[in-house]
Amino acid sequence: MSKKLTKNKKKYINKISYTKKYSLEEATVLIKEINFVKFNASVDIAVRLGIDVRLPDQMIRGAVQLPHGIGKNVVVLALVNEEKELEAKESGADYVGLDFIEKIKSGWIDDIDVIIATPSVMNKLGAIGKILGPKGLMPNPKMETVSTNVRKSIQDIKSGKIFFKADRYGIVHSSIGKISFSSKNLLENIKEFMKKIIRSKPSSSKGLYIRSIYLSSTMSNCIPLDINYFIKQ
Questions:
Q1: CATH topology of domain 20-69+162-231
Q2: What's the rounded Cα separation, in Å, for the pair 114 and 35?
Q3: What is the pTM of this model?
Q4: Arithmetic mean of pLDDT, 70-80
Q5: What value, to the nearest 5°, has the Cα angle with vertex 22 and ends 17 and 26?
Q6: What is the Cα–Cα distance from 70 to 36, expressed in whole angstroms?
């Protein structure tokens, strides 16, 4: 049995017109108006792409530096050799060192958001690849999580770099900030995110690339965005 909508929830839902595609300026104001939860909800974006995910050269994945971050402390594990440990700690890594490989084998991993590794240690991660892969945590040069510049990689992540990947339906889902962010900061984060998505278009992808874009917050309904806004940028 579905739960009956409360009067307040109905009021918030009725603010959205599903026959309209909202401009980014309208949507970043409306998303705050339809939020009804009492905590600092995440603001998320879902972009449906005109790609064929069965083709390796059309798989979309990458990283983007958001100007205002996502309003969350991103927990970083740095798998580096001993000579790089101090640099990783000074750069803000929450956990540092190759000893954590054994901990991961034992089941410790849930606290980690991102793993950074240097190329020299990648041969040691084969034993935990089956654990990290399904969780999207395996360091990857394309995601810029395999790096010789440990300091920069960690500092970038701590200051707002996020990672994205299209799912099996060709949809990219990502957190883009918090409901407490100003509409201006949400707008600037979304613009930067969408610039990266558009630049990531595979050369082999034909036809309409951006099919639809929806903005939502935790437990809120989705706001459909006008894709023409981004195509013109």
A1: Ribulose 1,5 Bisphosphate Carboxylase/Oxygenase (3.30.190)
A2: 29
A3: 0.84
A4: 94
A5: 105
A6: 20
Q: Which of the four pLDDT bands, split at 50, 70 and 90, describes residue 2? A: very low
Q: For the chain, where do the domains classified as CATH 3.40.50.790 start and end?
A: 76-158
Decide if domain 76-158 falls under CATH 3.40.50.790: yes
- Strand 61-65 and strand 161-165: the pairing is antiparallel
